[in-house]
Design brief:
Helices cover about 55% and strands about 10% of the residues. The protein contains 21 helices and eight strands.
Length: about 475
């Protein structure tokens, strides 16, 4: 085919214009420049990574159609993204507008005077209380902690970018995130590290759109060396905020800046989050922060006791760690309550005092998990009528929900198999045994189903906390 690259691209644009809005055409296609055409391959230059990814994400269908229609069935499209070698001035330094070969940053409003984010420009907002020194290592967090230490030594230069930490409440995600930031600041004092909650980031983005300063806000975040975002799950159902964070993420990652994210669930379970964001969350390392085992809880309790400066007999410590299992925050709260009660009542810390306090403590923090609680949770999760779980329906969705309810009731309540069966319309204990085995067999052969079970288990554990 004899044609020049400009003519081929013009023909492509003619077809594309009929399938996109005027604003979409102006934003995403007008800046593109055709570079060359050879061997049925048209090469185009796009201004930046953002436009390239948007073309691939949103317009790949019409692009393919245009290329095939213009060049032929064997036609292909290649991209070129120019690399701008510019030296962006560090924040708060005067900008030399005489350097004509640099981007004219002086034309952009100073992001550090935006109301509501001025403080964030000067402070990392890291808590000095959270360090690696007081983050006890155990099987529950070993992989995440090890990755965090590696990142602290080479931020942005490991394969753990982003580092995505997930797990239930009170399991140390925020502690580890702060510890990474604090260690980076300790080793690299010149690096700009920023910790922000998802809620605060969302408020900043909403304010920036309202006041027309979104470019300035993006510039602020793009100037960071390390960005730590806590509780990213709260971006769900906020498409505009997700889009802005998507571009911030891309800019930082492309420039080998470190990103650390925490969530109460893994990326695959993040409902109503854009697929392109979920995909990026998986680019680095996804590490779960699990519930600590008994030995780790003992080590955590001993560290807390040492830091607070009081003594707890070994048998009392074991009693507490055996009874407080759900998360670290509760364990530490129990120890503080025990020390306070000892001081207030002028009593020695012993098993009897621990029993008194733990009974009150657990009553305050927990509600008992019952078979009825679990049935209600599962029925709501699967959107099935609650009364169907206790009936005889053989509809597959009902059967699975019923079997899962029995499985969870066996694992999370102290009820006997007979008692559990009776709670499901008078079924006997053999039905409960069969159901539990059926659930376990499905978990062993179906990873998607296993994920569903793990999600329900997390919901039950979360329901333990009042």
């Amino acid at each position: 085919m004899s044609a020049n690259h400009q003519q081929i691209w013009n023909d492509c644009l003619t077809l594309i214009r009929g399938h996109v809005s005027d604003q979409g055409y102006k934003t995403w296609f007008s800046p593109i420049v055709p570079i060359k055409y050879s061997d049925s391959v048209l090469t185009i230059q796009v201004p930046n990574q953002y436009i390239y990814e948007m073309l691939e994400d949103q317009f790949i269908g019409i692009l393919k159609k245009a290329i095939k229609s213009t060049i032929g069935p064997g036609g292909k499209l290649e991209y070129e993204i120019p690399i701008e070698k510019v030296t962006q001035p560090t924040p708060l330094e005067p900008i030399d507008t005489a350097k004509s070969d640099e981007i004219e940053y002086h034309k952009i409003k100073n992001p550090f005077v935006i109301p509501g984010i001025k403080k964030a420009a000067f402070e990392s907002e890291l808590s000095p209380r959270f360090t690696f020194d007081n983050l006890v290592e155990g099987d529950c967090n070993k992989m995440a902690r090890t990755a965090g230490l590696a990142i602290a030594g080479r931020p942005g230069d490991t394969s753990f970018n982003p580092l995505f930490l997930y797990g239930g409440t009170g399991l140390g995600k925020t502690h580890l995130a702060h510890a990474i930031g604090n260690e980076i600041q300790k080793r690299f004092p010149g690096k700009r590290v920023k910790y922000v909650t998802c809620e605060k980031l969302t408020n900043q983005i909403v304010y920036a759109f309202k006041t027309g300063t979104i470019t300035d806000l993006s510039l602020l975040y793009n100037s960071l060396d390390v960005l730590i975002v806590d509780d990213i799950q709260f971006l769900s159902e906020k498409p505009k905020t997700q889009e802005t964070f998507f571009f911030i993420f891309n800019e930082l990652h492309q420039n080998q800046k470190q990103i650390v994210i925490t969530s109460d669930r893994p990326p695959k379970d993040m409902d109503k989050m854009e697929k392109r964001l979920i995909s990026r969350f998986k680019w680095g390392l996804t590490a779960e922060m699990e519930m600590p085992d008994f030995e780790t809880r003992i080590a955590i309790a001993e560290a807390k006791i040492e830091s607070e400066g009081f003594n707890v007999p070994e048998d009392v410590l074991e009693f507490i760690c055996y009874n407080i299992q759900s998360n670290i925050r509760e364990l530490e709260g129990m120890l503080i309550s025990l020390a306070f009660a000892s001081s207030l009542n002028n009593r020695d810390i012993d098993i009897n005092l621990a029993k008194d306090i733990i009974n009150k403590f657990v009553d305050q923090l927990h509600r008992e998990v019952t078979v009825e609680n679990i049935q209600s949770l599962v029925a709501d999760y699967f959107k099935v009528p609650l009364d169907k779980l206790n009936g005889t329906s053989r509809k597959r969705s009902i059967v699975i929900a019923r079997q899962l309810s029995m499985y969870l009731a066996k694992n999370f309540t102290n009820n006997s198999l007979k008692k559990i069966g009776e709670s499901f319309g008078g079924k006997d204990h053999t039905t409960v045994i069969y159901s539990c085995k059926a659930v376990q067999d499905m978990m062993d052969t179906d990873n998607e189903f296993k994920g569903t079970v793990e999600e329900l288990e997390r919901k039950v554990r979360m329901s333990l906390t009042a």
